[in-house]
Every structure is written in C-alpha cells, then in structure tokens.
Amino acid sequence: MSEFLGYERDDGSVGIRNHVAIISTAPYANDTVKRAAEITENTVPITHPLGRCQTKPDVFQTYRTLLGYGTHPNVYGTVVVAHAGEIVDGDELASDVAETGRPSASINIHEEKGVMNALQATVNAAQEMVLDASDQRRVPADYSNLTFGINCATSDTTSGLCQHKATAKAVWRLIDDHGGRGVFAETAEFFGGEHELAERAVNDDVKQEVLDRVEHWDQRLKDTGYDVRGAQPTPDNMDGGLTTIEEKSLGALVKSGNGPIQDIVDYGAKIPGDSGMYIMDTPGHGAESVTGIGAGGAHFMVISTGQGHTLSNAIMPTIKITGNPNSRERVPEETDVDVSEALVGDEDYDWAADQLWDNLTRIVDGKLTMSEALGESQFAIHRIGPST
Amino acid sequence: MVERHIQVVEPEDNVATALREIEAGETLEVAVGDSTVTVEALADVEFGHKIALEEIPAGETIVKYGKSIGNATEDIDAGAWVHVHNVESNYGRGDLAADEAEAEA
C-alpha cells in the first residue's frame, strides 16, 4: 500500500497540512479575527458575512460549515471568536471542536470587555497553538485516509474534452487503487446529464435523491422569473465557447468519471468514511462549492479549469489543472498542471492523469500549491434563505 | 485529411468543437464516429467555439456528448457558428415560467 506523510489527529483523521484556524462566528468579529491572524504567524483567518439574524436552515448550514473547518483534518487547532451572544454560538462551536481532541479556545468580544482585550486573548490562544503545531512531525499514513475534492472553474469547451478526463482518472486511481474517497459538487451543473448520473447511484434511494435535488435547483432558478443564462453559463464560460448550462454540465460531469456514486450529502456536511465517490449538493458558484467541500473534509482539491482561475482555499490545498493551451498565459501564477498537450499535442489522457497524480502526491506530502505560495484563498458559505 | 483540431464527441452530435481558430471559407474534414463529414465554414470560429456539421432547423435539438445541449432559435446552416445567438437552453428558464404564469392569469 502507498503511504504519504501526514499529521495524525486524535479523531483518527490524518491531515496534509497543520493549520491553526481562527474562526469568526459573525461579521462583527471578522476584524478581530483578521488582525489576530496578521499578528500570529501560520494562522488561517476564516471570516464571512453570516452567523447573525439568519433563519434556522441557514443557521444550521453556517454552523455545519464553520465546524467543518474547525475540525478539518488539515487543522491542528481552532480559536473561535464571537462578537456577543449569537445564534451561531461561539462557545458551542469551540466545544464541538474540542470533542475531536483538537486544541480549541472560545473568545467573546463582549465578555472580554472590548475588541482590544479580545484581540489579545485571541493572539495568546493562537500563539500557543501555533507553537505546539510547529512541534508536530509528519508520519507515514496510508493513502486510504485521503479524500479528493473536485471542482470546475471558468469552464470552457476544453474542460470536458481534456482536463476533466485527467481529473477523473486521478480521482478514481485514489478510490480504486488506494481505497480513498472522492467528492464532487455543483448540482446546478448536472442539468442535462442528471439521468445518466443518477443511474450510477449505488441504490434507488440515492438515485431518486440525485434527481430530486437537480429538480429542486431547476425550480429555484425558475422561481427567479428570469433566464439563468449569464449566471449559468457565466460570461467567461460563454467567451470560451460554452453556449448553454446543458453543454457546461455535460462537460462538467466528465470530471466525475463513470464509477458508482455512494451518496449525495448536504452542503458542508462531512463526507462519509467508506471508500468511494460522493456528491455534495452545492451551487455551481465555485467559491461556495469549494468552501462546502472544504467543510466536508476533503484533504485537497483539484480545480479543473478551462480559461484559468484564482479559485482556492486556505485550509485545503487546491491544485489547478488546465487543458486549454492559452490558460497558462491568462493566470500563469495559479496554474499547477498544464495538460494541453493531450488536447492539441501528441500526449494522451493517461499521460495527463500521470502529470496530475505526480503533482498531487507531492502536494499531499507538503509541497505548496501555486495559490498556497501566493497566500490566495476565498471563503463563501452558500446561503439558502433571507436574513431577518 | 481529417482534422484532429475539430473534435466531435459522439457520432450522433450535430456540432463540432474548434480546437484552433477557423476562418470563414475553409473546407473542413471532420471525423464523426467512423465516417468523415465535410463542411465549409460560413463564419470565423474562435478556439473552443462550435460549428454546425449539418443543417439544423429552428426548434431542433443541438446535440453534443450525444445529448441535448439546447434548441436552435433559428435555422442554422451546415458550417455556421453555433453559440448563444442561435441556441437556447431548456433549463433554468425562469423567463418562460414567468410568461406561462402571466398567460394563465
């Protein structure tokens, strides 16, 4: 069996990074989180505009997503910063993080009597965790521990013809040869291919769930009263030659390969432990789908892009692959793997998959991705309903 | 000679994807399954964009990956550029749902 070098956690997971997360529970704690992360080396700030005055479905989704980050395999410990008493409760979040055996701290601006005191307390807690995290060593671990996330980004017509084929071969190599897990998302990008996708479900319940969730997305879009074109496909998709959401979707599904689908899970929910391919129900909006997959616990993610993209995540390394020979020129500092020779040159898709696999195994062992080296990331939780 | 830079995914597709810039007036030999289709490009087609392999009447299905990617909104000639100006989607059509609701009211 193949092994990688990772960080063992008390909950049995193994990380490929050793981050300390500083998580805000509401907009009013965001600046304290950002300032603490600027002061303390090797911390990751997680900030967002949510967590207050939300209805319950959104409260659950926000909480689930933040907890997913606080307990991510790549996270050593977590400091939670709250503003006051909130419906997304800081103490509860820190307590749920601690249950996984990770160091955790809860700071509350009101209870600390001000932002300066809260900043001091946050830095103190984070500094202690960073020191301890830096003292932990990577140890050999089996590849079956790994969860491989997949997402599209600025798709074009090359996506389904080239880079998605390489991505599919790589994810199924992890599942079939090593007993790992894969997860893809973007339910609104199954339109037109949903019946063939549903046929891949391991049982009738999962099959029906896939069809129901696709139908739900089509209905949500119909309820807007407008044609979705412009939002899907996006203007940059259309520049790249994609004409309709069906064309984008049929290409997008190529990246999931042809193997069986074990289950479809809610946005931000933990990916189950059994080996196989899973779907997370997310929008096609990349920042939101990648944020959801990160909360699900994917160790790393392959972003299979057409026109090139900055899409990335602070906790989960994102490896960008493209098959469009022009993309490396558009976003050169964000392109990890260029397999366009398989599309317009003399190479084949096995070669392309090998290029990706070789890159991702080194990144799993600690080599930085292009976006990690640039310190670039986004964080956007998908919301369901209104603020109140 | 058949061009590898004009790609057709499935034999039943009625559009091909240009993996190079195509100029109007070029004669293209395209592999469709085991056979070869010859079309004359009626317009310039950019890298990544699509060209019709046969005449597609208004309302008919545009087929790629062997499946529908939408319908022609006008008669499309063989060799024409196929994109948002002559194809519409069948999903996420809130505009049509709104029109239907108005018609029923």
**Quick one: how many beta strands of chain A?**
14
Q: Using CB atoms under 8 Å apart, which protein chain pair has the greatest interface?
A: A-B, 36 and 34 residues
**Largest sheet composition of chain B:** 4 strands, antiparallel
CATH class of chain B: Mainly Beta
* Widest sheet, order of strands of chain A: 10-11-9-8-12-13-14
Task: Name the helicity range of chain A.
Answer: 25-40%
Largest sheet of chain A: 7 strands, parallel
Question: What global shape of chain B is seen?
Answer: elongated
Spatial ordering of strands, largest sheet of chain B: 1-2-5-8
GO biological process, one term (chain A): D-galacturonate catabolic process
Domain D-galactarate/Altronate dehydratase second (chain A): 6-133
Pfam families (chain A): GD_AH_C, GD_AH_second
Family (chain A): Belongs to the UxaA family.
Could you outline the blueprint of secondary structure elements for this entry?
The complex is a heterodimer of chains A (388) and B (105).
Chain A: E1 3-8, E2 14-15, E3 19-24, H1 30-39, E4 43-46, H2 56-70, E5 75-82, H3 90-98, E6 104-108, H4 115-134, E7 139-142, E8 147-153, H5 157-161, H6 163-178, E9 181-184, H7 194-199, H8 204-222, H9 235-239, H10 245-252, E10 261-265, E11 276-280, H11 286-295, E12 300-305, E13 318-322, H12 327-330, E14 337-338, H13 341-344, H14 349-364, H15 370-374
Parallel strand pairs in A: 3-4, 3-5, 5-6, 8-9, 8-12, 9-11, 10-11, 12-13, 13-14
Antiparallel strand pairs in A: 1-2, 1-7
Chain B: E1 6-7, E2 15-18, E3 27-32, E4 35-40, E5 50-52, E6 61-64, E7 67-72, E8 81-82, E9 87-88, H1 94-104
Antiparallel strand pairs in B: 1-2, 2-5, 3-4, 5-8, 6-7, 7-9
